[in-house]
């Protein structure tokens, strides 16, 4: 996702009292002076530290005042955020796509070899007249590409419009268009080779949109693999850690979820999987804090209710620490893929 020191001015009595033989006459005066000092300290609500001689009351009052101001400011922000999101649904769309968060920084997407992808070709596709998308991406997915490549798979990865060095602005319909175009482009050049579609996180919503579209046209891919999927965007948004401070308050759906729908963002994977005709493999880690494990399991239960194709769910124990995006680290992943994709009964 400073410490400030307060300077305290301590006044010291500079009067030096000379004791003489007749010290008895000085006692009433000293006692009167002490009482006056005590009375003064009491009136100003100041305590004197016995070790340092410093007055601490002012320090406490200052920090208490600052804490109160901070608490009021945070409360005001907390109250205002739901109304801002409701009035400006585009803000909620930004939070769903997060395409403005560009990680990692300072890499040249035209040079995949800089990321250790020595046999990778960077190129661009044009799904629409005014949109150009780049055909590979960075971050943790690079490690997945390496795993798949080591198993003999050719990987075509692309950045949706608005991500990476791809042009345009993200939208569910636009991202689906990009994916359909890329699949058709690849299918036309793959000959008799099998083509599989892999989606991760938000990409699982795009993937189910695409495969449903292809299934309806009777041209589905050879298999669909969903890594860390969700059921639909409303259930995912309600389960996301960002929503924790608001999800139990009245009006949460109206303030936060309805604006997402109003922005045309649905990603109905739970509905899509009921129309998908190709084999489906779901991978999910139990300790996924971004898309909870129970959403992936729920999607599997819905998909497996259709008995006309193979559906498999593979979970990864929370002790493995794979969380949301490190399933590629599993030494079992290559075996899981080979077994699923080479199954002769996969299409039964």
UniProtKB/TrEMBL annotation:
Any one GO CC term of this protein is:
endoplasmic reticulum membrane
Q: Which residues form the Serine aminopeptidase S33 domain?
A: 143-237
Classification from the root reads: Eukaryota, Metazoa, Chordata, Craniata, Vertebrata
Q: Which Pfam families does the protein's record reference?
A: Hydrolase_4
One Gene Ontology BP term is: monoacylglycerol catabolic process
Q: Which UniProt keywords apply?
A: Membrane, Transmembrane, Transmembrane helix
Q: Which organism is it from?
A: Chiloscyllium punctatum
For this entry, the protein name equals Serine aminopeptidase S33 domain-containing protein
Superkingdom classification of source: Eukaryota
Query: Which is an annotated GO molecular function term of this record?
Result: phosphatidylcholine lysophospholipase activity
Where do the TM regions start and end? 70-92
């Amino acid at each position: 996702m400073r410490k400030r020191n307060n300077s305290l001015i301590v006044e010291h009595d500079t009067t030096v009292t000379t004791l003489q033989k007749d010290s008895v006459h000085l006692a009433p005066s000293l006692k009167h002076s002490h009482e006056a000092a005590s009375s003064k300290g009491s009136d100003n609500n100041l305590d004197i530290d016995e070790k340092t001689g410093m007055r601490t009351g002012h320090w406490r009052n200052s920090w208490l005042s600052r804490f109160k101001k901070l608490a009021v400011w945070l409360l005001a922000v907390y109250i205002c955020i739901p109304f801002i999101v409701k009035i400006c649904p585009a803000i909620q769309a930004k939070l769903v796509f997060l395409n403005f968060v560009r990680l990692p920084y300072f890499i040249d997407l035209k040079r995949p070899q800089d990321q250790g992808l020595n046999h990778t070709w960077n190129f661009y596709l044009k799904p629409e007249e005014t949109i150009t998308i780049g055909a590979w991406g960075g971050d943790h997915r690079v490690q997945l590409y390496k795993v798949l490549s080591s198993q003999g798979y050719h990987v075509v990865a692309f950045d949706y419009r608005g991500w990476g060095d791809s042009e345009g602005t993200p939208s569910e319909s636009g991202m689906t268009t990009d994916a359909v175009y890329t699949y058709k482009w690849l299918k036309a050049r793959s000959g008799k080779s099998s083509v599989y579609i892999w989606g991760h996180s938000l990409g699982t919503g795009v993937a189910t949109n695409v495969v449903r579209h292809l299934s309806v046209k009777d041209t589905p891919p050879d298999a669909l693999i969903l890594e860390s999927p969700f059921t639909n965007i409303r259930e995912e948004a309600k389960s996301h850690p960002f929503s924790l401070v608001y999800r139990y308050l009245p009006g949460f759906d109206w303030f936060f979820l309805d604006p997402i729908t109003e922005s045309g963002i649905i990603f109905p994977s739970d509905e899509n999987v009921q129309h998908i005709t190709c084999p489906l493999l779901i991978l999910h880690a139990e300790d996924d804090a971004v898309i909870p494990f129970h959403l992936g399991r729920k999607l599997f239960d819905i998909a497996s209710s259709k008995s006309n194709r193979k559906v498999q769910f593979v979970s990864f124990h929370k002790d493995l620490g794979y969380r949301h995006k490190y399933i590629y680290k599993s030494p079992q992943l290559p075996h899981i893929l080979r077994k699923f994709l080479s199954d002769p009964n996969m299409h039964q």
